[in-house]
Amino acid sequence: RRPPPPQSPLDKVAAPEGLSLPELAGRWFLVGVASRCRDLAEHSHRLEATAVVVTIPDGKSLAISTFRKLDGMCWEIRQRYLPAQAPGRFLLKGRGYSSKVDVVVGEADPATFAILYYQKGRNISVKLYGRTSQVSDAIVDKFEQRVRAVGLSEDVTYYYPTYG
Fold first, then answer.
1. pTM
2. Which domain holds residue 35?
3. 116 belongs to a structural domain
4. Is residue 110 situated within a structural domain?
5. What are residue 52's DSSP bridge partners?
6. Beta carbons of 152 and 22 less than 8 angstroms apart
7. Is residue 70 very low, low, confident or very high in pLDDT (cuts 50, 70, 90)?
8. Which of 96, 145, 94, 100 is nearest to 119 (CA)?
9. Is residue 8 domain-resident?
């Protein structure tokens, strides 16, 4: 018999009790991200201010419009986070087989910040969003604690500029 697969770090992340999706709607700013993504590491010096607009089209899923500058042009990226097995958990389907991303809202105070976890295969990343482009040091500390809890470190944590 094969042993059961190891528990995913995302399985240990609990979504906040009583998370109200409508409270997540509105404009957010991407403040920081922790990820072992090679592209992010190679181009971290070119990070641009990034804004996100969240809508709840059907009361269960999140429609995400990300606005960012790339090579001097503004781009909009649209994604749909579909509801998964529990409140605060979502599935982002990509193109092709095995290109799904599991998403968990790990912690949120909808008036000020949200910490989301993303897992594709065995790779995990953590993103910090703020209602403003700058958040308090206490929120940054909380984000960095969550990053360490899933085995990432400050050398793969990047913060976005607050201008642009």
1. 0.90
2. 21-152
3. yes
4. yes
5. 28, 66
6. no
7. confident
8. 100
9. no
- Output the domain CATH number for residue 72: 2.40.128.20
Q: Residue 69 corresponds to which amino acid?
A: K
Long-range contacts of 42-51 (CB under 8 A, 24+ apart): 44/158, 47/158, 47/160, 47/161, 48/160, 48/161, 48/164, 49/133, 49/160, 49/161, 49/162, 49/163, 49/164, 50/160, 51/27
CA distance 76 to 45: 21
Identify each DSSP E strand in the chain by its residue range.
26-34, 50-55, 62-70, 73-83, 89-92, 101-109, 113-120, 123-130, 157-159
Does the residue 93 lie in any domain? yes
Please report, to the nearest 10 degrees, the dihedral formed by the alpha carbons of residues 27, 107, 68, 81 taken in order.
-90
Question: How many domains in the chain?
Answer: 1
Please give the share of the chain, as a percent, with pLDDT higher than 70: 96
pLDDT in tens, 87-142: 899 999 877 666 789 999 999 999 999 999 999 888 999 999 999 999 999 999 99
Tokens representing residue 35 in the block: 């990820």
